[in-house]
Specification:
The protein is α/β, with parallel strands linked by helices. It has 9 helices and 19 strands. The strands form 4 sheets. Strands 1, 2, 3, 4, 5, 6, 7 and 8 form an 8-stranded mixed beta sheet that branches. A 7-stranded mixed beta sheet has the order 13-12-11-14-17-19-18, sandwiched between helices. The protein has a two-stranded antiparallel ribbon with strand order 9-10. Strand 11 (about 215-220), helix 6 (about 225-230) and strand 12 form a beta-alpha-beta unit. The longest helix is centred in the first third of the chain and has 14 residues, at about 90-105. The two termini are about 45 Å apart.
């Protein structure tokens, strides 16, 4: 929370008192909605975030709150004069935001950029000044660094954002092709935990299921597990994620594989769905930005329990060291560890014993 308060403080020190500027907070997975008191929002300010939970909560405080994949075109002709941004965990995301800032800020616009010592903040400031037309210096505040950068030169070269706006086929197998893009967690690889979960599902669990009306991929990423639901002949396929890039990538993956009966929607741990499903499949997160958050595991177990039908089945995969069992036992009557290869473990959970 302190780093967001620091950004706000430095922005206030640098602002023109005579001409209040329209400011925009750029918020990603590093930001917890519990920290929103650190954001000093005025009616003229706006928020741009790729996180559904962040925009939904902040809409109660500010009208101009945009949920998107860092698409600065949502501003139209009313672009902000000041951007406030804590660097993201993923380099392509940070480079995307810096490129967009350079393209959309007018002359003398400001970018207030901050990060911790080990998050590449020094390199980002150097590149923004060397290539993107910004000037300014980095200041140290304990373990945090912050720079108020001014846009007063032309862009000489954009930073490498891995073609952020483009969908890319990153893998193919016997079930189909997988289409992804930067901005999705693990966007350019097949997650080994999800691969293990899919093997358990298709080879062991799916043949045993008698009810295949509906299935939910909770935290769908680019749709790797969602495609497996289609292969297992579920009639209604649902997928959800908190991340804007994941929503668009999953839709692209399903369409690229000819899947027609599906619904993909943004949500916070599946809160966009009210009806339980015969199967819930999930590779839950345990990081929030740069930090490990044990509360995320508990949150997703509770969400999985709510979304699993009374006679349904839930399949979860987590890193082997995550103590998910203690949460699962509080929500489900039956718990079975299908496999534990010391890197990942797959659990089968049911409401009935």
């Amino acid at each position: 929370m302190e780093i967001y308060a620091l950004i706000d403080q430095q922005a206030n020190l640098a602002r023109n008192q005579q001409v209040p500027a329209r400011r925009c907070w750029i918020l990603d997975e590093n930001f917890s909605i519990a920290w929103q008191a650190a954001l000093q929002l005025s009616p003229n300010d706006c928020v741009l975030s790729n996180r559904y939970d962040v925009t939904r909560q902040l809409q109660d405080r500010i009208e101009a709150c945009h949920f998107c994949d860092f698409d600065f075109d949502v501003f139209g002709s009313n672009a902000p004069q000041v951007l406030l941004y804590r660097v993201s965990k993923e380099r392509p995301v940070t480079n995307r935001v810096l490129n967009m800032a350079a393209s959309h800020l007018n002359a003398n616009g400001q970018l207030v950029l901050a990060g911790n010592k080990d998050e590449g903040i020094k390199g980002y400031v150097q590149k923004a000044c060397a290539h993107l037309g910004f000037t300014g210096k980095l200041k140290k505040f304990g373990n945090c660094y912050c720079a108020v950068l001014h846009k007063n030169q032309e862009v000489s070269a954009h930073l490498d954002d891995k073609n952020y706006s483009d969908f890319q086929t990153i893998a193919e197998d016997d079930l189909g092709q997988y289409i992804s893009k930067p901005g999705v967690y693990g966007w350019n690889k097949i997650d080994q935990g999800s691969k293990l979960l899919r093997e358990c599902f298709l080879e062991e669990v799916s043949p045993q299921l008698t009810q295949k009306q509906s299935a939910i991929d909770l935290g769908c990423g680019y749709g790797y597990l969602t495609v497996a639901l289609e292969a297992a002949d579920f009639q209604k396929i649902y997928a959800t994620d908190n991340n804007a890039a994941a929503i668009s990538a999953t839709i692209a993956t399903l369409q690229g594989n000819g899947v027609t009966q599906y619904k993909v929607c943004p949500g916070d741990a599946g809160d966009c769905f009210t009806e339980p499903a015969d199967l819930v499949i999930c590779n839950p997160p345990f990081h929030q930005g740069f930090e490990v958050q044990a509360s995320l595991t508990e949150k997703f177990v509770k969400a999985t329990a709510r979304l699993t039908a009374p006679r349904g089945t839930a399949l979860l995969v987590v890193n082997a060291f995550i103590p998910i069992e203690k949460y699962a036992k509080q929500e489900f009557a039956s718990l079975q560890i299908l496999v534990n290869n010391r890197s990942f473990k797959v659990l089968r959970l049911q409401h009935y014993s």
